[in-house]
Amino acid sequence: GDGCVHVRVDFDLITEAGVARFRRFSEETADLVVAHGGSLSGEHGDGQARAELLPRMYGSELVALFHRFKDLWDPDGGLNPGILARPAPLDANLRFAVLPQRPVDVEFGYPQDGGDFAGAVRRCVGVAKCRTTEASGAGVMCPSFRA
Prior knowledge:
Layout: H1 16-35, H2 47-50, H3 54-58, H4 60-73, H5 117-122, H6 143-146
Pfam families: FAD-oxidase_C
Cofactor: FAD
Protein name: Oxidoreductase
């Protein structure tokens, strides 16, 4: 059967050095996956996170065909601009780039994060599993801390 590996590497996406490390890791991982016949996308598609790496998997000729198809059906470029055809670099538009570069005082923190709640927030993957509509008292914290 098919295998799908979910990897959570806690990259420093705040500093330039951390973002550069993230880029190197992404490029090297993509090359390794492709070398072994794997796919850079899985259940969630390609999107902004991997589109820059698609030429490594499909080759530049097929990616150029993606661009031609996009131009044919979306000549004004209004539908999902910069996602698959002519994507932004994978290290552009990271959500931490707009945050203040100073420490944030907090009143609450998890021991695993050294008491730094801001650290826990940075590790959030943004899937909103921590939000619940049940009144059962199941909790409102990140699922990784509910276990």
